Amino acid sequence: MNICITGALGHIGSQLLKSIKIDDGSVLHLVDNMANQRYCSLFDLPENNIIFHQIDIRSKEMDPIVKDSDIVIHLAAISDAESSVNNPELVQQINIDGLQNIIDLCAMHNTKLFFPSTTSVYGGVDETLNEDCPESSYQPQSPYAISKLKGEKLIQKAGNGHGLQFTIFRLGTIFGFSTGMRFNTAVNKFVFQAVSGQGISVWKTAQYQRRPYCDLIDAISAIKFIISNDLFDREIYNIVTVNLTVNDILTSIKNIIPDLQISYTESKIMNSLSYDVDNLKSNKKGFRYIGNLDASVKELIEKFRHINKNVTYFL
């Protein structure tokens, strides 16, 4: 079984490509345009039959790659919610136009598609949200989140009209270590600020809001679960390890760095929404969550702890 991973060198992809197993004689296609220059994600790859393609997902060069693949894991996207506000045109080009190219090619070549959406499409109600919540519960607050909701609808349309086999995950905000990890999300960003002695900068509007988070361990395991069980059932699944407030995250970090300094700032995205998201549907399919905030925070701090000798740790 041949597999293609787009955005292969990013936060999720760089960990997935090192843990995914392919059969003897099969090929793992890695696609990345290197816009973020994550060359280090290509270090120490496993001894699989891997082919790296430095191309754009909008390119015609994607055609033979998708044709040669049984599954496309489409991770390529503009994924920084806050910066997406300043560049909605690029979000449209990559997250919508690029996705449409992948959808069309998968439908043409009968290739199965995995698409990571986001729990940021939710919001607006006090109750716990699930995949069957009403349209009024969808309140995406950034061009990034809006593009993910549009992407879901494009994929569903192709499933209904062209028989595309797909699975969509609404992932909680990812935290945890990988070679190509991002530091524009709460847990990872806060840990780096803490260990480098900067102190943590917190959005005033967000300290006690509850949001869904996903340990990278669970995100990777869930994708592999879909592949190993051939679960391309045209369904959407919430993949959420835990619902947390920013204060919960700060507490986890302060357990290791008790002298942590915290300041409060304004955000360009004045998102006042607070909500929980459940993972019951994925649990009923047999997926089990093992991620843990405290364990992931500790791992990140341990990897960073020698960068500033003035920071005291209780590891």
- The second-level CATH architecture of the largest domain is 3-Layer(aba) Sandwich
Query: Strand content of the residues, in percent?
Result: 15-25%
Shape: globular
| Widest sheet, order of strands | 3-2-1-4-5-6-10
**Radius of gyration, Cα only, in angstroms?**
19 Å
Structural class of the secondary elements? alpha/beta
**CATH-defined topology of the largest domain:** Rossmann fold
Helix content: 25-40%
Give me the count of strands.
12
How far from one another are the termini?
A: 43 Å
Average pLDDT metric: 91
What's the order of the H and E elements?
A: EHEEHEHHEHEEHEEHEEHEHH
Sketch the major β-sheet: 7 strands, parallel
CATH class placement of the largest domain: Alpha Beta
CATH superfamily of the largest domain: NAD(P)-binding Rossmann-like Domain
Low-confidence stretches: none
Can you walk through the features of this model?
- By secondary structure, this protein is of the alpha/beta class.
- The chain has two domains: 3-174 and 212-239, Rossmann fold; 183-211 and 243-276 and 291-307, Alpha-Beta Complex (UDP-galactose 4-epimerase, domain 1).
- Helix content is 34%, strand content 17%.
- It has ten helices and twelve strands.
- The protein has helices at 13-19, 62-67, 81-84, 88-109, 143-162, 186-195, 216-228, 246-254, 280-284, 293-304; strands spanning 3-6, 28-31, 50-53, 71-74, 112-118, 166-171, 173-175, 200-203, 210-215, 235-239, 242-245, 262-265.
- Strand 1, helix 1 (13-19) and strand 2 form a beta-alpha-beta unit.
- Helix 6 (186-195) runs parallel beside helix 8 and helix 6 runs parallel beside helix 10 (293-304).
- The longest helix is centred in the N-terminal third of the chain and has 22 residues, at 88-109.
